[in-house]
Amino acid sequence: MPQANVPSAAGFLLSRIAAALRRGHPCGGVIFLEYKFSDAIRNYLSAEMFQPLPTTSNGNGELMGIIDQAVDANPDFVFTHEVAHCFWLTHHENARGEVKQHHDQFDHNCMMSYPYWGIGAPPYPHQAPNLYDPTFCGKCNLKLRGWDITHADILALDAPTPPDNLVALFYYDRADPGLRWGTELATVRGAFTSVSRGLFRERNFNRNAHFATWMRELGDCDVYHHVTHGNVRCSRDRVRLASMTVATPRYPTWCRSDPNKVNALDKSEHDLCVSYKFNRTRLEGWARDSLITTSTWFHNLYSVIQWRVVDDDPNQDIEFTYEQIQTAFNGGTNAPRLLAFFSSCLLGWEKRFAKLFLDQGTPYVVAFRSRYETLQALEFSSIFYDTLKRGVFNRTAIKGAFLQAATQRPHAEPCLFSAAGIIRCVASTMETNSGDVQDIAWDNDDAFYAPRFPKR
To answer: What is the span of the domain harbouring residue 33?
Structure first.
């Protein structure tokens, strides 16, 4: 921010230069001194004092400033930023001495912000030092033109109103491009940023999933969208379940701790589909009598999030388990404030995973009871967010957005969980737009867990 000349060698030289140039003209022109440490000085400082080396640049109300050429940023930005301090513009995002009321709080590309030089991903991708190419925000432009940006009428514009007060977080597994997270990211970001000036965070793990980091960021958003693999895990045997491979939907079959049972069910599913041509009555009877359920007494089954570590070897995946999330929530970690959307297989197969979030204050959870193909996920998300965008991400628009997407793309059994109950959508045929909607009370396990197969 505007200040006296920085006490440094460059500042000392600048003062001497200004005194000589301004003799008889004390306010004439803007004077800047650019400097760069010699290699000898840089090597000495690196070895003896600082790592990494600090840089010093500034502009001040005396219409002069200094610029260190070693600053890790676009030099045009650095020069403009420091000259703007000479005209009493103040810092914005990522900078010490930030004066929020002097800036448009929804403009994250202001000249008076710094690039993000912190640890981890920047709050906005374009704030990376090698990408940052800002302009002056609206309030900066007003101030440069002589407006009083501290006037009450202008300060009143700062108060965020829906949907600008929303924060969105998109988390994905970068290690698995097969999830096509880039397409889904574009869908969610495009819908959110078209109606909201609120913060949109993009985060990922790339073979380095860290539970505490994920939970911390999860608790600081309104809209959460999640793209990874998912499964059902037996806590007793600490293995994930096998799933159906032929019919749709693809429910879990049995715990992998019993490979003989898994293989037998796999064969019986195949034989049934071939012999009876996917007859849904026979499939539903077989699934009801044969497949594992949450009440199978000698297993303890919970949905689990998976993060890829080794290509083509899911056994090496990092798991975020029900028990870990439960412990974090019990310890006071917050949950998303409006919506948690899990674009993953099987995280809606059992009710308790979603209920963790509801009990922690998330009003709505979207999850799927079946395994599903990536294309189905992309199409479902596209319909859901296109509808939610038209409802400007209002809480009352979430149910309608879900019903639009679920009835058109029902084959992975999408579910909407809320305190009022569960909406489960099942496919009546293999065609699109074939969803049948079921409103299910939380205590009605028979309706929620009943296997349902489409007519072929």
So the answer is: 9-158
